[in-house]
User: What shape does this take?
Amino acid sequence: AAISTNAANIASNAVAISTNAANIASNAAAIAEQKAGADLGLTSLQPEVTNTWTVGPHLDWLVNSYTPTNAFTWSLSGSNAIITAYSGSYASIRVPPYIDGHPVTEIADSVFAVRTMVDVVLPSTLRVIGSSAFANSGNLASIDIPAGVTNIGAAVFNGCSSLAAVTIPAGLTVIEESAFSGMSIVSLAIPDRVERISATAFSACASLPVVVIPASVTNIGASAFDSCSALQAIYFQGAPPTLGAIFSGLHESAVVYHLAGYDFGATFGSIPTAVYGPALVDHPTVANVAGALVAQATNTIAAGNLSLQRIQVWDWGCSSNRFLVLTNDVLEIWEP
Assistant: This one.
């Protein structure tokens, strides 16, 4: 009986040892998985269950969209990660918001310059994009710049000839030299916190037809819009800024438009001037203006079936039935 009991105990111990070994292997796999997840900024819903992950609170897109972190070289500034180099060859780049648990807050100078990628998505953690970071990447057609970016270096998109649209973050106060030159943008929204547009900032953007300069801008550098050969209208929303040099290489019929009450002279930067207005019609509290009529001087336009928070309307200046309509900061040409 004792021998039989011992045999049973040995068998039981063997099963326990086997179970312990399996648990150790499972724990090792879970630890490895958690480490991999942490590298991607993930959190586990149930740490004891493998392959059960959820997107962490700071992530803006699915995990499978990220470019592998081993494609980047990075360094630390305090607890923040700075991407200093890129060694991949992906057509689509999705920069992760965290590397090894550190938020990615900066892309250093020239990291993605002269590359063949087609589109780029940047993380919401980003605050700084260095000079020439994407310069002369001629295939780049789409990029998403996070709203939290407050510093964009010189020549950052210089020569990105396939880039037809870019959103300038609202927190920017300076547009650096050649930052957006040589692009194929067809529309441009300059944030109303920008104070300086540096030299050659938008030069050689040959498809750009209209520019609106917010009242916050006090200085426009030399050649900021030179060789924008399609540029026919520059609208100033405030006082005339200091110009580094005359405008050159614009469309032959280009006009500088300004609000009544500001003295831009007969020409500004060698371009003929005209007053738009006479006054800006502003309805800051209008909402749900379905079918409403907005009157501008003797002209009347129908707002249509729109749901708006703000409407601003003024005469186009060259025809009694053409208008510029600024709706939620989007400039459109409206014709009845």
In short: The chain is about 10% helix and 30% strand. Confidence is low (pLDDT under 50) at residues 30-64, 278-336. The longest helix spans residues 2-39. The longest strand covers residues 80-86.
